[in-house]
Amino acid sequence: MQGLVFHGDRRVSLRPFPDPKPGEGEVVIRVTASGMCGSDLHYYRAPADGTPAAAKVCIGGHEPAGVVEELGPGVDDSLAIGDRVMIHHYAGCGRCVACRSGWTQMCTTSAPLVYGKNAHGAHAPFMQVAARSALRLPDSLSFEAGAAIGCGTGTAWGALERLGEIGGTDVVVFGQGPVGLSATMLAAARGARVIAVDLEPKRLAQSIRFGAAETVDAGSVDAVQAIKDLTRGSGAPAIVETSGATAAAKSAVAALAPWGRLCVVGLGGTVELDVRQNLSRQLTVMTSWSLSSVQQLECADFIDRHGLPVDDLFSDRWSLGQAEEAYTKFDKQDAGKGVFVF
Fold it and tell me: I need a labelling partner for 237 at 20 to 30 A (CA). Which of 28, 73, 196, 313 fits?
């Protein structure tokens, strides 16, 4: 089969790989949708440091959904050939407290597998994964939705879970890319009044379609002052920062209300906190690393029950043979989410 490989310096290629065979406790998934995630761009844009031999290269992509194609030895009857599944894109020992609670990416026994990073990912027709990483996808949700829930949309869900109860409160979402739009959509559905912040007017217009009650164009106004004006001077009780921009993180801290909570999920930025200046504000600043497998199932169920338009996050659908064109466009970050469909 052909699989996509990131070479850095904004280069990708398709390379031949053996068709996967499931080992003990593993399954092979026939991939039907493989989402393109903003974090893939870190591999795509990275300076090339020499391409390893083809046999050692990792297939990229960590937002898979598909159909169970083959069961390995030791897989119990919770999965069957033909099941529709999304993938929690990590695998750990399966025995430690972290793994048993669904946080396999935080395995305390061994370094976890991260599909698409140190284990073959989903930008290929087939994918070999731990059976515990394959989660049932509700019949009413598309494979594209399942792919998004596995990381981008799921990351937004994980951030909201970290913030705690948000129903009836103001929630500010910095950045209205696919993760930010997902946070806007999910927070609104959970009963929050969402204030969407971005530099791009087109993304702000889209955020209204996903449930934002108010928008702030940070390229034309002082975002902190605008948020305070929209919250009667008090500031925001809860903020999610998805852009990964240091300037956005700085504004997010400044825009918090006393006792406010900030959850940071965007990669690439720096969060600085002047303790003397902020001590009396009683702030909570936290990070969130995607979500657990348990939360992934809860997120899918919530989206299913509320009929949320996750499919509308996708602006581009590609075949794997269009990989170079797909990542060239995705690199511009001026549209919605991209996905390879098989």
Answer: 313
Distance from C-alpha of 72 to C-alpha of 174, rounded to nearest angstrom: 43
DSSP state, 75? -
36 and 143 belong to one structural domain: yes
Each residue of 281-324: pLDDT tens digit?
999 999 999 999 999 999 999 999 999 999 999 999 999 999 99
Cβ atoms 98, 110 nearer than 8 A = no
Q: Look up residue 154 and give its amino acid.
A: G
Burial of 47 (C-beta count, 10 Å sphere; 0-12/13-18/19+): exposed
For residues 53 and 51, what is the distance between their CA atoms, to the nearest angstrom? 7
Distance CA 24, CA 121 (A): 19
Which structural domain, as residue segments, surrounds residue 301? 2-151+291-341
| pLDDT tens per residue across span 121-131 | 999 999 999 99
